Every structure is written in C-alpha cells, then in structure tokens.
Amino acid sequence: MTSEPLKFIADAMLGRLARWLRILGCDVSYESSISDNDFIARAIHERRIILTMDRKLTERESAKNSLLIKSPSYKEQLKQVITHYNIDYKSGIFTRCLVCNNLLEPIEKEKIKDRVPPYVYSTQDEFDICQQCGRIYWSGTHRTKMLEMLDKILK
Ligand SMILES: [Zn+2]
C-alpha cells in the first residue's frame, strides 16, 4: 500500500460496498443520486478512484482512474477492491463515520453518558465521535462479527 491513502468514489449501485470500505477506514464519497457527469467531475476534482458497475462509464476517457466492479454481491465487491488495491484492511478499521465519511475522534466517556445505552456505557470504556453528525461509536460484538466476516471473505 502506498503512503498516500487511497480515496474512492462509489456509484449509486454500490452503497453497501461504500459503507464497508468506510468500516475499513477508507475515504469513500457516496451519493445515491448523482448524475454521471457530476460523478466523474467530482472524482477528478477530488482525485478519487471510481468504483462502478457501469462498464460504459469506465470506458470514458475522463473516467480512466476506475475499477469496474464485477459482482452484485457486496462481499465479493469488497474482496475485489481490497485485493486489487492491496488494502491493509486492519490498519484503519473503525476510524471513520459510516454515514458522513468523516474521521472519528476519541471522546471522554463521561461526556456521552446519556447518549449511549446504559449497558454499553457500563461495559465499554473507549468511545469515538463523528464531529459532523454526532454519532458515537464503540467496540463490541458487532465489530468482532465484522472482523470475522472480513477474515472469512478474504481467505
Ligand atoms: Zn458522521
């Protein structure tokens, strides 16, 4: 993996893939309704790699920096992207907001007491927050399950 982090933009069909790449910490722009021209313009302007299932789009001269996603299954899509770009998927995992694509920041436990379920508060000590949307993230069985799934599909 290069030192410059990869940045992606995913087409409207690839919402689930975009979310999973954000779980891995990848910077992924995603909008469910955007025209092809705006999509490509943003990719060029923000130097993002285009992820798309649209072969025609990848054949455009302006969309050269792209990866044609082959499978309709998000697990296969994820595998394709991780393998193709040799992404070290464990180094940045759980560092990004799944909704906003913002990097998370640690927040003191006391500050979010009334914002997470009591069980979570009593069993977890480390929390992160997205400064844009205010969502709070923490470790737990959901993350363990995600890691297990990743190990499984990447085997
Ligand atoms: Zn957010």
Which helices and strands, and how do they pair?
Blueprint: E1 7-10, H1 15-23, E2 27-30, H2 36-45, E3 49-52, H3 55-58, E4 66-68, H4 74-84, E5 105-107, H5 118-123, E6 127-129, E7 136-138, H6 141-154
Parallel strand pairs: 1-2, 1-3, 3-4
Antiparallel strand pairs: 5-6, 6-7
Bound molecules: zinc ion.
Folded structure, characterized:
With 155 residues, this protein is of the alpha/beta class. It folds into two domains: 7-84, Rossmann fold; 105-154, no CATH class. 35% of the residues lie in helices and 15% in strands. The chain has helices at residues 15-23, 36-45, 55-58, 74-84, 118-123, 141-154; strands at residues 7-10, 27-30, 49-52, 66-68, 105-107, 127-129, 136-138. The strands form two sheets. The protein has a four-stranded parallel sheet, with helices on both faces. Strands 5-6-7 form a three-stranded antiparallel sheet, with no helix packed on it. Helix 1 crosses helix 4 (74-84). The two termini are 19 Å apart. The model has no long low-confidence stretch (mean pLDDT 94). It binds zinc ion. Zinc ion binds next to loops.
User: Which consecutive residue ranges, at least 5 long each, have pLDDT under 50?
Assistant: none
What is the CATH-assigned architecture of the largest domain? 3-Layer(aba) Sandwich
Query: Secondary-structure element sequence?
Result: EHEHEHEHEHEEH
Helix content class: 25-40%
Strand order of the largest sheet: 2-1-3-4
Query: The biggest beta sheet, please?
Result: 4 strands, parallel
Q: Bin the strand percentage.
A: 15-25%
In the CATH hierarchy, the third-tier topology of the largest domain is known as Rossmann fold
Write down the Rg: 17 Å
Kindly provide the name of the CATH class of the largest domain: Alpha Beta
Which class best fits the helix and strand makeup? alpha/beta
Average pLDDT value? 94
**Ligands and ions found:** zinc ion
The end-to-end span amounts to 19 Å
State the total count of DSSP E strands.
7
Shape: globular
Q: Quickly count the domains.
A: 2
